[in-house]
Amino acid sequence: MIHTIVRAIRECYPGVVFGGYLLAFFVAFAMVFMLPIGALGLVFLALMALIPVVAVLGIVRAIERPLALGKLRAGRCPACAEKSIEPPSTANENCYECAACHERFSARGEDVAAPEQIETIETESVKSLE
Length: 130
Fold this sequence. Notes:
Blueprint: H1 2-34, H2 36-73, E1 85-86, E2 95-98, E3 104-106, E4 111-112, H3 123-129
Antiparallel strand pairs: 1-2, 2-3, 3-4
């Protein structure tokens, strides 16, 4: 349950931060006409806020990683909580995959992007080039 909450925070955190910065932009834009020095101060404040924003994201990821590892070792998927985790099948692929939701996780418990499918060139397109 704790991992689910931390995972939800990590997933929605970039959107919340973006919304906060968008709101700060609109407030600064309005302040340009009312109190220009306030707009300048808000810009500097927003720039200085980047440091704690990135630090908090690092802390959330550091909390989530061991919780996800615990679920992976128990055979549960950190994303959907189903007991359908498949261990890495080959030596060059170091990812766990959930059979239910097809999410992939590294050996450290982090989410891994699914590999892109390489499209094969159809023979018709090759013939058209000849």
